[in-house]
Design brief:
seven-stranded antiparallel β-sheet; Cyclic Phosphodiesterase, Chain: A; alpha+beta
């Protein structure tokens, strides 16, 4: 399955994204809001692999900065072909791109690292909806009000996610 390293969002940005999720659900559209697990939260995926060995995780804990990053969520983007994903773009900053590069360099030898995580190929985003139908995209954008205004805030730590164990844990925290 998948293991990941994810940048969490501050309380206000998290609440704004969750409100967008709820508006999608209320409109009977696919939404991340429908995932009821406590670990389901808005985030920016920095790295993905089939497995992250303990030595790589230890390096992540040692190397990743704990200071919060400034974040700006911009307009919407659509990923995919047959199955579409609707997301809010995260405006890339030097600090965010540097953080993602550090994560990639520590994880690049792990098995199952996808090509879209390579620096220069990575698109920072926060997922709003997966498996949305093309005919529903216009409605989804209007319902979420995404793109109407940017959302500004900060990060709130980095977590590890293990989809096999359905478990999350913080590897950095805000100071």
């Amino acid at each position: 399955m998948v293991q990941s390293v994810e940048l969490l969002l501050d309380r206000d940005v998290d609440a704004t994204v969750r409100a967008e999720w709820r508006r999608l659900s209320a409109a009977r559209l696919p939404s991340q809001d429908r995932i009821t697990a406590e670990s389901n939260r808005p985030h920016i995926t920095l790295g993905v692999a089939s497995r992250i060995p303990p030595d790589v995780e230890s390096a992540l804990v040692r190397e990743l900065p704990s200071a919060p990053l400034s974040l700006r969520l911009g307009g919407v983007v659509v990923f995919g072909g047959r199955r579409l994903t609707l997301a809010r773009l995260v405006v890339p900053t030097t600090e965010l791109l540097t953080l993602q590069r550090i994560v990639y360099e520590l994880m690049m030898d792990c098995e199952g690292v996808p090509a879209h995580i390579v620096p220069g190929e990575w698109t920072p985003h926060v997922t709003l909806s997966r498996r949305i139908q093309a005919v529903d995209l216009g409605t989804a954008v209007v319902v979420t009000r995404a793109g109407k205004r940017d959302v500004v805030g900060t990060s709130d730590g980095v977590r590890r996610w293990d989809s096999d164990a359905k478990r999350e844990w913080l590897i950095t925290r805000r100071p």
